[in-house]
Amino acid sequence: xxxxxxxxxxxxxxxxxxxxxxxxxxxxxxxxxxxxxxxxxxxxxxxxxxxxxxxxxxxxxxxxxxxxxxxxxxxxxxxxxxxxxxxxxxxxxxxxxxxxxxxxxxxxxxxxxxxxxxxxxxxxxxxxxxxxxxxxxxxxxxxxxxxxxxxxxxxxxxxxxxxxxxxxxxxxxxxxxxxxxxxxxxxxxxxxxxxxxxxxxxxxxxxxxxxxxxxxxxxxxxxxxxxxxxxxxxxxxxxxxxxxxxxxxxxxxxxxxxxxxxxxxxxxxxxxxxxxxxxxxxxxxxxxxxxxxxxxxxxxxxxxxxxxxxxxxxxxxxxxxxxxxxxxxxxxxxxxxxxxxxxxxxxxxxxxxxxxxxxxxxxxxxxxxxxxxxxxxxxxxxxxxxxxxxxxxxxxxxxxxxxxxxxxxxxxxxxxxxxxxxxxxxxxxxxxxxxxxxxxxxxxxxxxxxxxxxxxxxxxxxxxxxxxxxxxxxxxxxxxxxxxxxxxxxxxxxxxxxxxxxxxxxxxxxxxxxxxxxxxxxxxxxxxxxxxxxxxxxxxxxxxxxxxxxxxxxxxxxxxxxxxxxxxxxxxxxxxxxxxxxxxxxxxxxxxxxxxxxxxxxxxxxxxxxxxxxxxxxxxxxxxxxxxxxxxxxxxxxxxxxxxxxxxxxxxxxxxxxxxxxxxxxxxxxxxxxxxxxxxxxxxxxxxxxxxxxxxxxxxxxxxxxxxxxxxxxxxxxxxxxxxxxxxxxxxxxxxxxxxxxxxxxxxxxxxxxxxxxxxxxxxxxxxxxxxxxxxxxxxxxxxxxxxxxxxxxxxxxxxxxxxxxxxxxxxxxxxxxxxxxxxxxxxxxxxxxxxxxxxxxxxxxxxxxxxxxxxxxxxxxxxxxxxxxxxxxxxxxxxxxxxxxxxxxxxxxxxxxxxxxxxxxxxxxxxxxxxxxxxxxxxxxxxx
Length: 929
What we know:
Helix 12 runs antiparallel to helix 13. Strands 16-15-14-26-25-24-23 form a seven-stranded antiparallel β-sheet, with helices on both faces. Strands 1, 2, 3, 4, 5 and 6 form a six-stranded antiparallel β-sheet that branches. A three-stranded antiparallel β-sheet has the order 7-9-10. The protein is 44% helix and 12% strand. The termini are far apart. Strand 24 and strand 25 form a beta hairpin. The protein contains 36 helices and 27 strands. It is of the alpha+beta class.
């Protein structure tokens, strides 16, 4: 039959080339109708599983031509009925008594005949109106044989065409389909779904359950092959004339059905896996509620899978790569290749807005084009030829539970298309997904021991801090880490809250937080390290190190001008990045662009915060002075000596996604920005856009392509314990502290810094000029470092041994006795900083009560910070993922320092709702009230 249909279409394809447009359309319509009837007749003849497939295809008005939909929808409820003798025999055998003893009346003509059973209307002896579902004789053997044949067919296709491996799908069908053959099972499913969706109990106003208003028939009696249900008078979904006559709002109808399924999937974890139009009716009385039928193929999923599906949905809605990959991992979906943007594109397809049948062709073309782009991206990423890419399956393992879930979404999409309505799934399903993911996770509903990571307190002040965090609760805190060193020893190492708004996993000591301008303090440390190594001088002109930089009046700009924010390049690339935000992902291009910029003020004349340009200016100097890649210098200067592998990055490598915190915004605090004016140290362009930036930044920085970029002013990723250890070293002029607290689990420095991608792809071929990088992907050697993370080290074991030895030997990362003066711009370095400026060389500096500069550090937009007190040998870091104006961080810092009897830096001690944020704290106090 397949060959007959194939040759029919090929012949028509040739013939219509010579006819007019009008005749061409009519010819194709007749061809579709002719072949649809062939398919219908064969499916009716074969019965069983093939009828189920026809029912599925009949719902896909968004995929198949209209003649196929019109013909195949007969399979939904109007197959040829079985003989009455067979029906009577089954009923009397199953119920153990004559039909006349059970029914006062039994209508001989069936209401509907489907693939597994047929349904008759009847009246019980007690007068109740019912429907009786009777299983076809011998259908069980037919279905099982069809599954066996389908499995063989799928295996052959997977062998012949590896890119079309549907084995996971058929395996799930083989497991679930036989359950439809037990009507006792269906009866219990019906009762369960009815209880779950009922609003009779525990359904106060505003609850999620009250958002669902559907009808489900009551179960009267059941056996293995007979099911008796309450009769409900309704209109079939394919009876368009009746729907119109009764004035049914089809848009509202499909939205209500979608809500019912969202409740079943996300709230109950128990849903009907077969929502084709034949399994619904519409009540004839207003408000025309959906009637849900046939719960034979009902799927129960675990609480963890329910949450993973909710997280997958919400991460698609938010464009959050981190949460999406986390959801995949929790679902059991394993990928062979690292392509987060393509993973997001594919996942988003499932939840896209449905289209009407008339728009389906255009929609399909767009999806086909996207698929071609994804295949091309895969081919380029993996360096595969066309034949290899066809055989390469990027999915290593696909969870069976997700198969039924995706089938349900496709059937719902087909339902909306067949009724010619549009459904915005993201809007309808979001409340249900949020409810299951977040409903039991607020601070007030879970024990404190779960909200604060379970680790022993290092000091009394840490115990008091934890009580303070509990008092603040989840209203002000999403996720937080706090770490502090005093005299080289850890006195605080606390983690609390969740990794993200839609990622309820607990924050742990090794979780990685995006820290924005905190990164500048790390980048500045790298510049100082190169000066200390004799590879760079503060008073050296940048053009001498970086020849391409010496254009457009930048010849007089020196290294200390960059560190001190006095180069005049405070707005460099601001307009370019505003028009093309993704430019920040291209390291080489941003360096080229920054080298072409023109200063707005004379070097050294004004200190104006280099909010974004600082990283590329210093980054270009670092690479040109060292002759090494930026991330190589970061490892050599800071990460390895301090033994903080795996917990401090500027641009993350693939393989650390499971530890990433996702950003969200404290919208209540952001509203306070409207009352703040820019001071002379703040670019007006920045402050005027800061609210908009703060709202948009989480969306941008929750994508992995931005997190993996090198943006040395903005996209550091670190743990509080790694950053605190860095500042503990800086506070002593570079002395490496003793090893971190043994109570902190996992141990600091125990992670592999550049982990391999979990599943290796195709084997490397000889003579291709490709190398296998540490991510497990095949990359061209010349491009491996451009936007990704290359293999920087020879042996993890050697590095660990060297770092451990260094940590215990009293060694230093700086040998200069004057390095502290350089950090703060005092002593012989005073001439290199702006008079009375808030910056030393690369660090924000603070005075103590007597006016002496003894504090320095750097905060970032949203509230994360790291700083140290040189006079008292104290260092502290706070990481947050709920971006605000810093009130949480300020309260945490103030509590700790006051408990220790240490002075509080002015950035954290001033009243009002500002800081710690460079943008806000560079304005004079009178302008910040």
